[in-house]
Design goal:
Peptide Deformylase, 3 helices, globular, binds nickel (II) ion
């Protein structure tokens, strides 16, 4: 297993659109194990392949308190959604930034698991937020891009300042 390098906003590679996986292979499963290890080590509640510069439709998530309920989503698609809710989000690709984002309250998602088996999941609460956040990554969208332009430029300035300080 290996820890993977996480891209940081505003890296252009975070805007690449991920391709669907045609076949779940041993290589896919190794990537998933490395992504899970990277997510737990960070620590984070979700990690999309886009964030580790692999542009395939895969993400891992674990929103449990005990950190023992790993979920794997391959080629995820939201097939139904309802309601709206606002929740504070953060992202391993945007360290130190937490902002409220409005999303659907309930979703139904279809995906494949790490064995390539199709499943359908209904989610609400924080899991629903997490799934929508990760699917955005696969579409090349970082959560701060849901915010106003003014807020986005403030966040970029804050990140630049921090990068200068750590050089
Ligand atoms: Ni994220």
């Amino acid at each position: 297993m290996a820890l993977l390098k996480i891209l940081h906003y505003p890296d252009e590679r975070l805007h690449k659109i991920a391709s669907p996986i045609e076949q779940v292979t041993a290589v896919t499963r190794r990537l998933i194990r490395d992504m899970a290890e990277t997510m737990y080590a960070a620590p984070g509640v979700g990690l999309a392949a886009t964030q580790v510069d692999v542009h395939e439709q895969i993400f891992v998530a674990d929103v449990s308190e005990e950190r023992n309920q790993l979920r794997v989503f391959i080629n995820p698609k939201i097939i139904a959604s309802s309601g709206t809710e606002e929740c504070e989000e953060g992202c391993l690709s945007v360290p130190g930034v937490y902002e409220n984002v409005v999303r659907s309250e309930k979703i139904t998602v279809q995906a494949l698991d790490e064995q390539g088996a199709a499943f359908t999941l209904e989610a609400d609460g924080f899991l629903a937020v997490c799934i929508q956040h990760e699917i955005d990554h696969l579409h090349g969208k970082v959560f701060v891009e849901h915010l106003s332009r003014l807020k986005q430029s403030r966040i970029r300035a804050k990140i630049k300042k921090r990068q200068r300080e750590t050089l």
